[in-house]
Amino acid sequence: MVMKLPYLGSSLFLVLTLVYVVASGSEKRLPILSFDEGYNQLFGDDNLVIHRDGKAVHLSLNERTGSGFVSQDLYLHGYFSASIKLPADYTAGVVVAFYMSNGDIFEKNHDEIDFEFLGNIRGKDWRIQTNVYGNGSSSVGREERYNLWFDPADDFHQYSILWTDSQIIFYVDNIPIREFKRTAAMGGDFPSKPMSLYATIWDGSDWATNGGKYRVNYKYAPYVAKFSNLILHGCAVDPIEFSSKRCDSTQSLEQLFTSVTPSQRSKMDSFRRKHMTYSYCYDQTRYKVPPPECVVNPQEAERLKKFDPVTFGGGRRHHGKRHHRSRASRSEADSI
User: Is the pTM here over 0.70, yes or no?
Assistant: First the structure.
């Protein structure tokens, strides 16, 4: 189905503004909404608790249920951000997600942009996963996974999504970690329909930790994910008419046309070189030929091949001692 979208023109100014805002580090000047101003509870009853006069939200998972919230508006493009502190200790099987989706409206051809945080056994780090679906293309997994240079359960850290009509950028503490560009070869697989913003915590025991080997242990419950500094900066879209209700704009045209800065690109390259542990573009067990939007980086390909020669190099799996990478030093934050 081809849907005419009258709101594209009205969002052009916002798209350019967003690129400037993030590249210039202006995130702190964007308005932070209280929960009642921008969100509704999605599920979880008492497992969602509002703090600090609506400026912070705690989501918990126990034996009874997980919990979540959703933006009151749909958005076509924008900048969406939250400061998140993840549960500590044994978190195997726990999934915390901060993502955009329209699956409730477009069940067969939905779009999605994901941050997923995957728990682990005691002594092992949380892993972070990003993913992108467009037009129901969930059969083509576009996952990337990373370690972080800090413990996300120790303190709050900012996780952000920039979505325009030509690219999606994922940020951690204003450092871009992934840039996903729209290409003609993708066809309709790039997210292009209005989406809501979601935050959830739930039991992903069947797959989240070592393919389901380690499951949620509820003797450590409740698992609490804390959210604050919630930013919704985008083009709000009427859910019935699919016309633009409101386009936020805070910068003048003279300040636009700025993309990812050289400094940010250097930090992104450094992050990916040190912390990326999986990318679908190099997975030879899933794709004999990389999907058309992939731009193969020889350095990334070689590093991942050494990390996992079976998945990324077509090698044979050998049984024996496993060698684990040592945890990144906290001082690496300065070198990213």
Answer: yes
